[in-house]
Write a structure and sequence with these properties.
By secondary structure, the protein is mostly helical. The chain contains 9 helices and 3 strands. A hairpin with a 2-residue loop joins strand 1 and strand 2.
């Protein structure tokens, strides 16, 4: 039993095995480890030292037809970083890279994770195009781009969409109270 790739249904463990990047024993060990850590097969293989995460990222990128991103020297504008709250970036393991009209390009470990993509789209109000990056690269970039949680010790600027929702909720509540008072 191997983990399935979310795009195309290919069995990633079997593909890595067939290309000689991992051995059958390494795959079996990773599958056992995966059950214990409740993580993706690729993460289990990296954690056990069966494969280098840069090689895994390049392999996944090639297999899925998605570009792999190296974040070490990459610069990202403060305006783009501000599109994603630091707490959300950390929770989802995502680094916004660039905005191109209504599309936000984002580095993440698994761009095929539809839950993460949907969460990013809901948070930013933009369509998300994901790029693969190794997990340690994502973590290092989170520390670099969002030091102190991304706020430099200052409170994070308010999320205008959240404030608008709260105002709309408050208006509905006031209208309901007014209706109740007019009945009395």
């Amino acid at each position: 039993m191997t983990a399935r790739n979310t795009e195309g249904g290919s069995r990633i463990g079997e593909l890595l095995l067939s290309t000689g990047l991992i051995s059958e024993q390494q795959l079996n060990d990773a599958l056992d480890y995966q059950k214990q850590c409740d993580c993706k097969l690729g993460s289990a293989l990296v954690a056990l030292g069966a494969i280098d995460e840069k090689i895994l990222a390049a392999f996944l990128a090639m297999q899925r037809g998605i570009k792999a991103i190296h974040l070490a020297e990459r610069a990202v504008s403060p305006e783009v970083l501000a599109l994603l709250a630091p707490v959300t970036a950390r929770r989802l393991g995502a680094i916004p890279l660039e905005r191109d009209g209504g599309v936000l390009k984002v580095a993440m470990v698994d761009p095929g994770d539809e839950d993460i993509v949907r969460a990013l789209e809901a948070e930013t109000g933009l369509r998300v195009r994901g790029y693969i990056a190794p997990q340690t690269s994502i973590h290092a970039a989170l520390k670099r781009f969002y030091p102190d949680g991304g706020t430099g010790g200052q409170p994070h600027p308010p999320d205008l969409r959240q404030i608008r929702r709260q105002v709309a909720d408050a208006r509905r509540l006031l209208e309901a109270i007014e209706r109740e008072l007019s009945v009395l």
